[in-house]
Every structure is written in C-alpha cells, then in structure tokens.
Amino acid sequence: MPHAGGNAMFYTKLKPFLDPRLMFCPVELAGRGARFGEAPFTCLDEVVADIFPFFERNRQPYILMGYSMGSLIIYELLHRIVEEGVRCPDHVFLAAKSAPGVVASNNQVHLLPKDEFIRVIRDMEGTPQEFFSCPELMDLFIPVMRADYSVVENYQWQSGRKPLQLQATVLYGNQDDISVEDIAAWQTHFEAPIHIEEYHGGHFFINDHWASVADLLNRRVF
C-alpha cells in the first residue's frame, strides 16, 4: 500500500531484491496510475471498501506491506479481514507511520493554500524534484495528494478493538519526525510481540534501503 500521493510504481525498486517465490502485487489506489480517471478517495473507509474484495477472493498465502498512509490502510484493512473471516496475511510490514491511536497534531495539510501545500510536500523529500518544475503535472496530482492527506488527517481511530493475532514488523527512519515511542505503540495493536527495525534516514528512508528492506521481507517470510 503506497504513501500519500504514491502509486503502485513506488514499490518497483523493491522487486529485484525479493525472493522469486514471492509474487509482487502492488496495489493501485483510485486517482493514479492505471486508475487515473477515477476520483481519489478522501476517507479511509472508502479506501478499505475499494480494495477489500480482492482479499475476499484470495485463497493464497500472502504478506502485506504499507508505507506511511499505506500502513494505516493496512491496519484498518486487517480489522475488516478479521471481521469478515477472510484469510489473513502471514506477516504484515508497517513502515514510516506512528501507531493508530497516538495523539496526532491538528495539522490539516490537505486544506492549506496551494503554495503552502507544495512546500510541505517538497519538505517531505519523497517526491521527485522534477515534479515541482512542471506546473501542469502539479495541477494534475495535487488534488490526489490533498485527497490522500484528507484520508490520514480525518481518520478516526476506534478504541476497544481486540489486538490482531498476526505477526508484524514495524520499520522506521531514525531521522523521521515520528518518535520511537509512537513506533513502539504498534505493539498495543498486536497480540504477539512485534519486530521493530530501525533504518538510517528520514520519512522516506526506504529510498536508500531497498535491498536491505527486501532482505528483511525475505527473511521474515522464508
């Protein structure tokens, strides 16, 4: 599952390092890539409702990985999977996201004026610089990015749910704004002890660690 503003292509740099026994299946959300003509979703329930049917039909073993917003999507998707009695993943990998339920800032990035919104996106260092030099491209994708930020910023965590009985690994960058405590808080959402992996870098640490992250996935699965 991609980060805010990301698409299925985000994970392609991971594929060459994955064990060939793993079938690589990136998820494309509405409003980008092959689904560019569809309106992007603005709330998490819509995202989960859109992608759940794929998992409902699946009968094969699988793992899930989410990055930033993608981790939040996976968290809610897992609860839907459990509630519906659908086959659960063998392992989940959650990257660059504080645990659900952690008190978040009241920032409403998706409502910022265009110039301020662009500055926030640029400062995250997850978008190619070429994007910011092409006004036409920005006009196309800024609405998608705003929608994704709305998904995250308007998310309402539901307390009182049982911890998930799944194996989980949480990955984070040691120079990200997310605290170690907020990463460790993922443990409250899982019955079994979670694995926590630290990487050098900021929010998009994975851009410097594709091979080592793929090696981690391979080792956890096989």
Overall description:
With about 220 residues, the protein is an alpha/beta fold. Helix content is about 35%, strand content about 10%. It has 7 helices and 4 strands, in the order H-E-H-E-H-H-H-E-H-E-H. A 4-stranded parallel sheet has the order 1-2-3-4, with helices on both faces. Helix 6 links the parallel strand 3 (about 170-175) and strand 4. It starts with about 45 loop residues before the first helix and ends with a helix. The model has no long low-confidence stretch (mean pLDDT about 90).
What value does the average pLDDT take? 91
Largest sheet: 4 strands, parallel
| Stretches with pLDDT under 50, minimum 5 residues | none
Class per helix and strand makeup: alpha/beta
Treating each run of at least 4 consecutive H or I residues as one helix, how many helices? 7
What is the ordering of alpha helices and beta strands? HEHEHHHEHEH
Percent of residues in β-strands:
5-15%
Task: Give helix % range.
Answer: 25-40%
Number of strands: 4
How is the largest sheet built, in terms of strand order? 1-2-3-4
Specify Rg, calculated over alpha carbons.
17 Å
Shape: globular
- Measure the end-to-end span: 21 Å
